[in-house]
Each structure stands twice: as C-alpha cells, then as structure tokens.
Amino acid sequence: MVLLEHVKRRLGPGVIFYCEHFHAAPGARVALFGPSGCGKSTLLNLTTGLLRADEGVIRVDGQEIQRYSESKLDAFRGERIGFVFQTFNLLAPFTALQNVIVGMRFADVIPDKEWKERARAMLDRVGLGHRLHSKPGTLSVGERQRVAIARALVNQPRLIVADEPTGSLDPKTADGVMALLLELCEQEKVTLLLVTHDRSIADRLPKIFDCTDLVKEAQS
Amino acid sequence: MNLWRIAWSYLWNRKLTTLLTILSVALGVGLISAVLTLREETQRRFEEEGQAFDIVLGAKGNPLQLVLSSVYFLDAPTGNMDIAIFNELKEHEDVIAAYPVGMGDTYKGYRIVGTTRDLMDFSYGDRAPYALAEGRYFEAPFEAVIGANVAQETSLKMGATFVGTHGFVDSPYAEAHENHPYTVVGILERSGSPNDRAIFCDIQSVWDVHSHGGEHNHDDQCEHHRPHDEITAALIKLASPAIRFEFKDLVNRNYNAMAAIPIQEIQKLYEQLLGMAKLVLLAIGYLVVAISALSILIGLYMAILQRKRDLAIMRALGATRGEIFGAVIIEAFWVTLLGILAGWFMGTLVCLALNQYLVAQIGFHVSAVRLTADLIAAYSAVILMGLVAGILPAWQAYRTDVARDLAEL
Predict the structure, then answer these.
(1) Which chain B residues have a beta carbon less than 8 Å from that of A41?
(2) CATH number at residue A94
(3) Separation in Å, CA A146 to CA A7, A132, A184, B47
(4) Which listed residue, A81, B89, B264, B271, has the most CB atoms within 10 A of its CB?
C-alpha cells in the first residue's frame, strides 16, 4: 500500500530526511514512533504528497506520487487519503455535519446527493448522531476528534494518516478515540499510519516503525 | 456545499468585520447611485417640461435665464419685451399656439404668473399640466388658480383672498399690493411640474397692478411705465419641433427680442455646468469605493493570514489551489455585491429624502434609484474593483504551503 525507498528530502541547511525503506501492506496498521523532531511527520507529509521528495521512490496505492502534478496530487489525496490531526483541525464556521460534508466536497468522489446522508451515518458511527449541528467550539475535545475521524473516513479512503491523534486528549478520552480509530480502520479495511511519540499508543498497533534515525546531518 | 456557501460561511464567521466592509462599499455606491439618479431624473423632468414649448420669447439677455424664469419659474426674468412683437409673431404661419407671460410679483415666495385663459387648456403628450383638482379657471382679472404646492404650503383654500408682493424674493420688506387682492377660484392637480409652485391669473391682473394707477412706484427691477404694452415672456408652440432653430434665428435676427429653445438651454446647462458637478461628485463616489476596495483587500488579507491553517486543511482534504483562490475571490464578490445592494438602498433613501426638497423647490418628483445604463456600468466598475481587491488575498491563499501551515500553530 505504502512504499518509500531511498527517499531523500532536504529540510534545511545541513539537515536532511532520509528513509532507506518503509513499507506498509494494504490494511496494515503501523505506528510511526520516535521522539519529537525525528522525522515522523515528514515521513507522513512525503507519503501524502504534502511534501515533495528530492530523491527516491514513493508509491502509494500503486501510484508513484512524486511524478504527479500538483492538481493530480490534490485529487489523489482527496480520493484516497484521510487525515486525522493532533489538534483536530475542524473548520470553525461549520457544524459537525458540515465539516464532514466539506471533506466530501473537496474529495469529489461521492455524488453530492449522498453527502448529507453519508455524513449523518458516519457521525452516527462515531457516536455523534446527537451533535450534528454543533459547531466545533461547542464540542468537547474528544467529540472534535471523533468528528475529525468521521471526516477522514467518510470518503472510504485507502489510507488514513493520523498525526498524534491523541496528543491533545486526556488519557481516558485518548483511549476511547484510539479504540474507535482502530476499530473503524479494521472494519473499513483501510491502511493506517499513525504518528506518535507515546510508546503506549504505539504498542496498540500491530506494527511499529522506528523513525529515530530519519533526520540526520547531510554529508558533504 | 459549494464554494459560494463556504465563502459565505467564512464571512458570516466574522460578521462585524464583514458588516463594516460592506458598509464602506455601500457609502461609495450610495453616493454614486444618488448622484446618477438625481442627475438623470432631474434632467429627464427638466427635459420633459422643456419639450412642452418649442420657443420662449423674452427680452434680450441670457437665454438660459429666460428659460429658467418663464418655463421653470426659477430665475428672475431678463426684462420685458414689446407686446407688439408677440402679437406679430403670434400670427406667424409656423406658430400654432402662443401664450403671453407677465410676472413681477410673488405670494409667500410663489410666483404670480399672468397669462391668457387658453394656456390652461394646454397639454402635450399625455400630460395635462394645468388640470384642475377643484374649482374653475380664472375668467376675470384678480381671479387666481394656484398650484398644488402653493395650496399645500400656504393653506389657501377656494374663495380665499391674498395680495402679491413685489419682486421674486420672499421678503418681509417687499412692497405688498394691498389694493389688488386676488381670489382663489381654482386649485391645480399636482403635476410634478413647476406649475405646482405657481399662481396663475389673467395677465390683465399683472398689468393693472403695475400700471400708473397702481399704488406703488416700482424699483428698477421691474420698471413698468406702460405695462399694457409689455410682457415678460411668451411661450410658443410651433407646427413642428424641426423648425425650432429656424424660428429662433428669425426672431433673434429681426426683432428686439430674444428667442430661446428650452430643451436646448437645459441640455446645455446639464452638459456644461451640472456635468462638471456630476463629475466631481462621481469622482468622490469612486474614491470612496476605491477606499472600500482597499478595506476589502485589508480585511480579506488579514482573514487569510488568520485562517492559513483552515486553507491548509482544505488543501489536505483535496481542495485544489484554484478552488482556494476561487473561494477567496467569491468572498470579495459577496462583500462587494452586498455593498452594492446596501448602497442602492442608501442611494434610494437619499433620493427619497431629497425628493421632498426638490418637490418644494422645483416641483419635480424623483423616484427611487432605477437601474439605468449608467448605473449598471457604475455597479459593474464597483464589482470589478471588489474582485481586483480580492486578488492579492486570494493569491496569498493560493500559495498556501500545506505542510508548513499544518505544522505551525
């Protein structure tokens, strides 16, 4: 599903990201583990095309995305990748329902007539059927992350990337959100790449990829 | 959910800023709307009235003054002309109707216009500017038919009497013709014309008041030694408007009198004097709009800086750069459009407020702001300015660095 080989990206003067090999099979659930600044998020951004590699091969769902144009990458992300962020990143002017619909609007893979029903059903699945018309500011942090998970999954993507999805949550809420995310990814048979610096979170995933040595000083 | 809805939601999310920006656009648009409407409406009404008569005769002087004084009752007359000239020209083969006008007095600022009874039957197109609301027309000297404004503002009723004062300025020091009271025998229907502000009577009344048998020796503004031999002006209808210029030349070359074409003088007035005033006011209006465009630019730019993360999220969700650019431009469009609608409304309020004044001063009604070709062009220019103002913020949004903006904050 995801393959990175000899991927190099210059991050700053004398600092590079280099990943010799990374592979996640379809349906795999992989924790990208390591301390802050080790290159976990860079790996995620390269995988989703938000960052371009200077060298190497990046293959996602069979596509070599580093060859894609900007607009093709936008479409690819919308169709096949779902995002869950540490700070939820819901759009403040919109309700929970509208936030999920916005995900479908830009992905453009689901007919617009089905948007409302799909969004409603997805929010039901994450236990927020009663908060459809609430704006992010009125939701608890746990509820916000559930909306973000619903938004990430509603387009039936092939890959979910989650960047510290429990980083802003208290342990109890984090536990519930992790359980929900893992359960939904398993039900949907979607590949999950989850960035975390928390060993206890990483241990809940079947596979851990150690990112410790991804960022290094460039050799002149 | 489309880009229009998304753009609208972001505007709604910062209501106060949006409202203030809309208001600033509305001020400029309101000014432009009011200036263009007032100019077009008054010109249209002036021209309508100007078309009633083909030629105005009067003493030599300024033709515009002659037209303004005898057709619109706005200016002092140019003097008096010999009635013999009027009588001769009245018989000219191209003249189908000619009415003498004698003026010299006012009542509470409203002009007393002496003429002949047949002017009251005059109509043109579908307009009958001398139609009666009540009573009858004057049949004898010192019987008066008053305009609708005169009746409303002076409270003169049928059968009431009043005396005129000398001159055209309402002044407590003006001499009153106490021995020559007029009696109101008719009140005209409101016509939205200068007639609303006039008092009509038989021209004999004016002559009698100003004859040597009158009670006053008049000042140099209106010296009448032989009033029966003189009239202030004459309103003439020709067999065809096409011969106006020919007839005008005939009079101006061969008689000790001046002929003026009302419609021509009014058009000159608008093109030369009022045209410049319009340009100045329009320039101010467009300047206000340009400042509003700047506030759109600053408002949107600040908004984009504040929601860089939202834009990055949208990009991560699959939005293209073009869609992000479009959403910001649409925000600029919404603000401009709402500013135009609010400005149209404000312009209409200004016109309605000025309508009272115009009715009182010149007898013309001004309607609400109507979409004329000039106004559509002005609104299009404002929309263009709004869209141009949106380009810089939209470009800023277009250049969103998704990975960096998601990592920040």
Answers:
(1) 407
(2) 3.40.50.300
(3) 33, 12, 11, 71
(4) A81
